[in-house]
Design a protein that fits this description.
46% helix; five-stranded mixed beta sheet; CBS-domain; alpha+beta; Helix Hairpins; Heat Shock Protein 90
Amino acid sequence: MPVRVEDIAVAVRPVPTAATVSAVFTRLLAHPDVFAVPIVSDGAALGMVSRRSVFEALATPSARQANGTTRITEIMIEHPIMCEAGTPIGLVAKLAADGSTSALTDGVIVLSDGKYLGLISPAALLSAVALENAARARAMQVAQKRLQKTRTDTGAFEQEKARFLAFVGHEIRTPLTGILGVADLLQDSVSGGEPKRLARTISESGHHLDRLLSDLLDLSRLEAGKLSVNNAPFDLHDFANEARDLWQSRIAGKRLDLRIKVAGGAVARLEADAMRLRQILFNLMSNALKFTERGYIGVELSTFEAAGNLKLRMTVEDTGCGINDLDKARLFEAFEQANASTATTHGGSGLGLSIAKGLAKRLGGEILLTDNPNGGSIFTVTMPVERAGPRLRRSPACAPLIWAASCWPKIMPSAPLSSPAPCRRQAGRWIQSRPPKTQSTAPRPTRIRPS
């Protein structure tokens, strides 16, 4: 609890305005511990006179003869610092530091409801300030130690959480991959409405669980600061075409127009983490698709120079229901959605935008949300990138050093790496086509042990 002025005030008996200098001098001689005497009128403090000023006024015989009968108000300090009871000592010290040095030379008058209460000597004021600063320093040291311990505990907790999620993710994903592979095979092999529908339900549910698991792992890595960034050259037009090919099929059946374009004059060859950029873009597009029933979803990719650095701008625009100002503040928080009915109506875990913002920050960029004048929302991602060199062409002389795709069927049928479902289906067919492994009847070699 901070020290108040009344805690260190001394109740020095005041003198009236009619008191003489010699009378106050006599009193000070009788009380050597009194550093000053307050002067009051009807209980109200008018000022005070210090021991030094009284002794200086009567220092010589001629001065004693001239000033002995002089009223004390003639040498009174007329404008000393006066504080009401309850004022913290720290505030008085601040006034002294700001220029009101009389508190450090003459002391302070303490009042109670405007009436004189006591005096604070300069020595008592400095001592109280020193003790309070020491107590504050000790409290800060304790707080710093607690904060450091909290940070250490939080860091350890985040690491344990990341390890736990990684372990659980691996243990869940391993059997899940087998389930998805079998479900994909069933969709291709079974006939009839009901069995095919059940196989499709298994596959869609499994893929949803796989995406949720990936989101949780990414979120835990972001929170723990363990998400790696791998920059590599990529082509901006190829990046746009991949997004168009994937999302064109997803909007099939909805009254939506998908518009994906690269702005004119944009730098085509860039160097950045294309996989994380794609993840940010797809999360924003998924959010736009979820809340847009009609109209369009527009994506524009462009580059610009800022302070001598190249920036990539990705804009995702939709004509959906829009987002009100209250929901904008918490929209990028984990497990948050625009309103309580969103999860019931549209589904989702509320992780997509949080992960997108975390990835953008990890890559040194930012995401801004604005309203679309046509209705809906506009998400703008700004990201630092580098210029990449031209695409290298493979030399024929390097062909023997490359394991050609034509060799793959000898081991397993090839499939594009970007399509995991065909990979699983082809893997399943390849396994099914392999002849069963038979028990060898050849005699086992005799193992000779040294004697």
